[in-house]
Amino acid sequence: MIKYLGSKRLLLPRLVSIAQALPGVRTAVDLFSGTARVGHAWKRAGLRVTANDHNTYAQTLARCYVQTDASRVRSDAERLIAELATEPPRAGWFTQTYCEDARYFHPDNGARIEAIRERIAALGLEPELESVLLVSLMEAADRVDSTVGVQMAYLKQWAKRAHNALTLRMPDVLDGPGTALGLDAVDAARAAGRVDLAYLDPPYNQHSYRGNYHVWETLVRWDAPETYGIAKKRIDCRTQKSAFNRRKDGEQAFREVVAAVDVRFLLVSFNNEGYLAPAVVTAILAERGAVHEVAVPFQRYVGAKIGIFNPQGEKVGVVSHTENREHIFLVDTEHRLTPIEARAALAL
Questions:
Q1: pLDDT tens digits, one per residue of 80-89
Q2: Is 4 a domain residue?
Q3: Are strands 48-52 and 227-228 parallel, antiparallel or unpaired?
Q4: What residue spans of the chain are helical by DSSP H?
């Protein structure tokens, strides 16, 4: 899966274990799904999952990894991916914008990305099969990018991987049903209805996922948007802001989502670099049930290990730390778990 700020890759074993340890959990919803890692892992573990994210690229990831039934699309997807891999390069607006005006990908790979994306658009596929092809292309592009893990900037000199040839692979799509939504979190909570387990991992500070991954948004939408700045961000990055990215609005937004979800167990991740202190999160969650918490070490995003760069790709400043603490809250809305049972679930 793609490199991603706030990715829960290292927490997946714990999140799966918690879901399996809680009694009667068969259905789950992830309201801020991002790369869909959590929903994908829960689907693999046998849960019926709904994954939601308001960004189009994230909804595409969720449609591929959560909603799509591999048994239905696998043969067509594998055949089409093999065909797309032979598509001759074609440089146009994408290559100009993201490989020459900006330098997220080497122009040789940019021309291949562009040609493959044009071909996918021309195929006119049904959404689930198309999502598998788009994710294959997105992940292939991510493997040859020249960034520090976010699309706020690009390296001054090409990253070594940027010279590798773009290679399409079949995504790890799973058998079985699921649901992908592209709604505001409150609307998605209502649309999901009653579930056994809900996971909330909202944006926790000023960094917008749309702004950090605007190239993926454009690659999926394929709408040749107006861009601005050295980073060539989509113009809608200026206007489509999440309330969770604003200190004054984040607490109320969190309260609304917590109140909206209809759930037996509520699982919440919150980073210690976030706007909301753990005590505030606990107080809000306590309105829904008994709250249990554990804090675990968590690696910061990949760019923190590489360094701090300006929009021209020049290294500036010094990284202060490479590890945070992730606070995981478990809310028992029916007050049935004993403290020992709750601690055991969180400790697995």
A1: 999 999 999 9
A2: no
A3: unpaired
A4: 12-21, 37-44, 56-62, 70-84, 93-95, 107-123, 127-143, 185-192, 209-212, 214-221, 247-260, 278-285, 302-306, 339-347
Closest listed residue to residue 45, CA positions, set 72, 16, 80, 14: 16
Q: What is the pTM of this model?
A: 0.91
Task: Note whether residue 157 is domain-resident.
Answer: yes
Condensed to tens digits (0 to 9), the pLDDT of residues 96-128 reads: 999 999 999 999 999 999 999 999 999 999 999
The first and second tokens of residue 271, run together, are: 């980073």
- 3 part of a folded domain: no
Q: How far is CA 95 from the centre of its chain?
A: 24
Burial class (CB in 10 A: 0-12, 13-18, 19+), 74: middle
C-alpha dihedral over 57, 8, 270, 21, to 10 degrees?
Answer: 120
Tokens 């049935």 belong to residue: 336
DSSP 216: H
Measure Cα distances from 121 to 60, 94, 125, 129, 215 in Å. 14, 14, 8, 12, 17
Chain centroid, CA 63 distance in Å: 12
Per the CB < 8 A criterion, the answer to whether 178 and 67 are in contact is yes
CB contact at 8 A, 301 and 205: no
DSSP string, 29-44: EESS-TT-HHHHHHHH
334 SS3 class:
coil
Question: Which spans in 22-143 are helix H?
Answer: 37-44, 56-62, 70-84, 93-95, 107-123, 127-143
Under a CB-based contact definition with an 8 Å cutoff, are residues 218 and 210 in contact? Answer: no
Would 256 be classed as within a structural domain?
yes
**CATH number of the domain within which 328 lies:** 3.40.50.150
**Could you give the 3-state DSSP secondary structure of residue 262?**
coil
Q: Which domain holds residue 129?
A: 9-347
- Whether the Cβ atoms of residue 303 and residue 152 lie closer than 8 Å to each other: no
Q: Give me the pLDDT at residue 315, please.
A: 62
Give the other-Cβ count within 10 Å of 169's Cβ.
12
Q: How many independent structural domains does the chain possess?
A: 1
